[in-house]
Every structure is written in C-alpha cells, then in structure tokens.
Amino acid sequence: MRNKCLAAHLVTLSSKKKQPRYKSPLYKARCNWEKLGVSDTCYNKQKEDKSGPALVKCILESFPESSHILNKIVPDELDLIEAELINLSQERYNIVLTTGGTGLSPRDVTPEATRRVITKEATGISIGMITKSLQVTDMAMLSRAVCGYRGETLIVNLPGSAKGATECFNFIKSCLKHAVHLLTDKQDEIKKTHDEFSPVISGPSQVKVNQVAMRNRQSPYKMLEVEDALKLIYDNTKDWHQIETIKIEDSLNRILAENVYMPEPFPPFRASIKDGYAVRSADGAGVRDVQDVTAAGDDPRSNEVKPGSIVRISTGAAVPLGADAVVQVEDTELVVRDDQFKEVKIRIYVAPSLGQDIREIGSDIRAGELVLNKFYKIKASHIGVLALIGRSNINVFRRPSIGVVSTGNELRRHDEELRSGHIRDSNKLTLLNLLMEYGYMGRDCGIARDNPDSVKRTIAEAFEQNDFLITTGGVSMGEFDLIKEVLEKISELKPTTFATCTYKNNKKFIFGLPGNPVSANVTFLLFVLPAIKCLENQKPYELAQISVVMEEDVKLDPRPEYRRVRLERSTDNKDNIFTAYSTGNQISSRLNSFVGAYALAIMPSIATYGSKILKKGANVQAMVLDLNF
Ligand SMILES: Nc1nc2c(c(=O)[nH]1)N[C@H]1C(S)=C(S)[C@@H](COP(=O)(O)OP(=O)(O)OC[C@H]3O[C@@H](n4cnc5c(N)ncnc54)[C@H](O)[C@@H]3O)O[C@H]1N2
Ligand code: MOO
Ligand SMILES: [Mg+2]
What we know:
binds molybdate ion, binds magnesium ion, Molybdopterin biosynthesis protein, alpha/beta, Molybdenum Cofactor Biosythetic Enzyme, Chain A, 12 helices, 6-stranded mixed β-sheet, binds ligand LQZAQKY5, Molybdopterin biosynthesis moea protein, domain 2, 629 residues, 5 domains
C-alpha cells in the first residue's frame, strides 16, 4: 500500500533556466524500502543537473532501505511547480525535496508554490536548516526555504546547488523518518523514537517505571552459588539439542551429531609412495628395460609390468598390474637413453622386497572403519577426512541463534554522537566479539531503553530471530532495572540473571548480564559460554584452569571474584607454577582491566576462605583466557 510507505520525492528547481523545456524522469530505483521519489526541474541541456543525482546518492546513503526514488525535473513556473507538488502529494509520496528557486531573484518561486500547496507549515525544519547553514555561510540569510506538509506528504525546500542541497539534506535528515512516521501515524515507530529520546529530557526522569517507594529492598530472587548456578543452567539447557544437516564446508567447529564411517577403502587402489619404478620384486636387482610410464591419475589396468621390465611411476600413481614393489629413483642409475632423452634401460642397485613403497588398498582407512566420533568438535583435518571419504553434508548439533541486547537510557551506539549523561555502548561489541572468539556468531539486537515497554518490545523482537539472548544492564536493584521483571522463570547469580521462557511455542533462553562491562565479560565466560555449549550438546564446559601464586594481598568479597591477572612463569618453574599480577584497579566498570589479562584468578568468597584477606603468595586457581603468554 503506497500510503503506508515511507517515501520521499525530490524536485530540483533551477532559477537559472528561463524556459521550461524538459520534464523527464531521470532516475528511478527500486530498493527494499517502500517508495521514495526524486524529481528535478533544474534539468536543462545547457547545464548538467548535479543536485538531483547528488541528493539521490545522499538519500541512498542515509536511508539505504529507501524503496523508490524518482528524480524528476519541473520548470521554474509557479503553476507548474504547484501542480507537480499537488500531484506528488496525491500520489502519497512521503517526502518531496525540492532544490532551487528559494533565493531572491525574480524567477525564484519555489517557496511561493510550496506555500500554495501545504496545509500546515513545519517551520522548525526550515529554521533548523537555516541555522545550521549559517554556520557554513552568511548567504544562508538569503534563503526563503519553506517546509510543510500536505496530507501525508512532507515538502522541504532545499537550495539549488549540489553542495547546498546535500548539506541542507544532511542537516535535516535526522528528523525525516520520524516526521514521516508522524504524518503516516505509525504508532510503533513513533513510540520507538520517543523511547530513544526519553533520556535527554531534562529535569526529573520522565520514565514512569513503577512506584519506586514500593520497590524491593532485597532482591526477591534466590541467589545461587556458582556451582549451583551452573548446574541449574545445565539442567535447563541440556535437553534442547537439535540436529541439522549442513555442508561440510560450513562445518568448522561444529559438534558432530553422528558417527562417521568409511564407506570404501582408502587408498582405493595400490598407490606408489615414491617417484621411481614399479617392479616385480622376484626380478631382484640388475639392469631392466623401462617398458612404459604411469602417472598419478592413470588407470592401473592400462599397464601391466612384464617379467624383466619395469614401469616409471610417480608418487600417488596406481601401481600397474604385475608390479608388487616400487624402487625409488635414488636407488637406480641410467644405463641407456634414446635420442629423445627417454630412459631405455636402468640399473636397480638393491633387490626390492615384496610390497616395498606401496600403500595397499585400505591401508590408510579400512572400509567400514569409524573415522569420526559423534560429539567431536569438527576441526580442519576432520573436514579434510569428510572430503576424502566423499561426504558433502554432515549432521551436526544445531547452534542456538544468539542475539545481544544492551539496555540503558544512557547508552548510545559507539558511532553515535554523545549528549550530556550519555556513554557509548561497549558491552554490545565486547559480547559479539567474545562470541566470535569462541567460534559463535551473535546478532546485534539493539539497545532497549529503561522502561518496561521498550525492554519487552526489544526482547520480543530479538526472540523473533533468536533462540538465545544475552542482555546487559538493568538486572540489579535500581528502579530502572527491569530485565527481571519481564522474564518468567528466573534464577539469580547476583546480579546475573538466567531465565527460560516460551515464546510463540518455542523454548527461549535469556541471560541478563550485569551492565558493568567487566562483570558482563566475566559472567559471559562463566555462565553464558557453558550454556551455549550445552545447547549444542557439548559436555559441561569451563575454561581451563591452572594453579597460580598471587603476587599481592587481596581483599576478599562475600562473593567469589575473578581478578584479571597477567601471568609470569616462576623462575625455577619446576612445578609449572605461574605468578599472577593484577591488571590494575579491579572495579567492575573498568573494562581496561582486561587489557593484558591472560587469566581470571579465582578469589574465594570470605566465607569459603575463612578470612577477609588472601595473603600474597597464596596459591589459587586461575581460568586461562589466553594461552599465548
Ligand atoms: N543497590 C544495589 N545496587 C547495585 C547492586 C546491588 O546488589 N545492590 N549491584 C551492583 C553490581 S555488583 C552491578 S554489576 C551493577 C549491575 O547493574 P545492572 O546490571 O543493573 O546495570 P545498569 O544499572 O544498567 O548499569 C550498570 C553500569 O554499567 C554501565 N553499562 C550498562 N550497560 C552498558 C553498556 N552496554 N556498555 C557500557 N556500559 C554499560 C552503566 O552505565 C552503569 O554504569 O549494579 C550495581 N548496583
Ligand atoms: O557484580 Mo558487579 O558485577 O560486582 O560489579
Ligand atoms: Mg542497574
């Protein structure tokens, strides 16, 4: 339906062209957004229209989902421009951008035509555009650009030059989508944008979450020990596994869901191990006639070695009939050659033994032999084996599709401009890349704002595409910490949260990790990774541990803690003991405590250790993050 589309129409008008001569569509493109239109009046054979194509390029860059762009030219005539604008609004284009005709020359009539057409003015857009343009040139004072709308169509006057038009488009583009959503009454989209901007409203927070005075003063969720938490995670993930068939080319690091047997012997023919001569061993040493040659790929039945003769052979070639040994070229000498330098007679120094330098049929892999076991993680050489035995597809355990959501009003994408009170979302890229480090792919499912609707909507949208979600933030005791409120079945690993739920009849898994970047990283390694592996039907997993000696006194916490440490081998290193040095301040907001960290040294809780201080020189276990130290 066209009226439901987000569309733009661009009209470029030129004041320079006196006669209206051309009216032709210049450019039409269909993309997978709905309908965008671009029209252009500044077209004249004496001068190339640059602003139309330049704007089309800008639109496509800024709104790659644009589905229809029409670049059209209309002449600089009040009535014609008016008629065209009315026509475009009747066709329900969502945005009409005009270029040209906004200045002070007598031919400049675009604002007048626009005023005739619009039912209401959108003054803010013109003001925004002109204000920002004034930072570029004082000439912007001469702009008479008008912006407004007729029906569902937003009409925006831009200057005529390619530079001015694209500059002004870039000044106003951030509000265009929302303007169209408002004009077309797209409530869902409108709400999303309002959520986005809620945190910048100054004064008391506008986010009405709950009656804060009634909040829990203690977490109502049961807090678990790490081991119990892991058990609960396994119990809730171990039965999910599913099998899928994939191409062997795509199977690296996947978990095999079948035993793989060899269907036929390998090598499938008797193959030479050396470059040399295929011989009859009974003929012994001495001078032989070189009867023929057989190369890799030749049919062994095409040749038969006659008594007293030999056949030149290369490594990997099938040994011809009659031959039962191969003599490497190093153990021979040339006796006679012909004019063409072909070998005629050679001498074998040492009598060959039966079967020498021949790989018998099935000597590498017997027919029926088990070559790969179910539950193996498929490595490069395994894929080679699968190729060797002629498998195109293989059954593996399906991986959950994984989405990553950040939550927080303070968050902006790392590439977005920050305003006061904002920080960049670092957890998203950390987690997506941690997934990749361990061989998984995650999807960016956006940033949810700290209100129940936004959290619910973002989670629901993420569940549309994913089996497994990792969220960060919003799991603690704050009045805007909402993740737990929207989940059904919950256990808490203070403050990490794990829940399973059914969404549209499918079982889904969600980890609400703490927002603090270090905590998100550590809890991913401790809990999320084992859960993903369990869904893939791998055995209970944890990072490999080694024994380390702490290089400093450490104040312990009521909860076990995981210190980021640099490791050094002890000088004598008899028992393979490593010394662990903390990577600076360990506060959980300080993500750079991971920089230079090779391991997580496990600090026991006060209760387990029986003291508040772990003394320098104490021996503890450390989970290895990077073996290359
Ligand atoms: N009264 C209590 N307050 C807090 C407790 C508690 O037990 N009682 N626990 C503290 C601990 S420990 C942690 S960890 C945090 C957990 O916080 P949340 O998971 O609720 O996360 P937020 O409050 O949303 O954010 C915490 C912190 O992290 C920053 N953050 C959040 N998301 C991101 C991101 N994607 N990228 C970068 N930084 C992010 C956020 O700005 C906050 O500074 O709660 C303590 N409070
Ligand atoms: O659990 Mo919080 O993660 O200590 O900072
Ligand atoms: Mg919080």
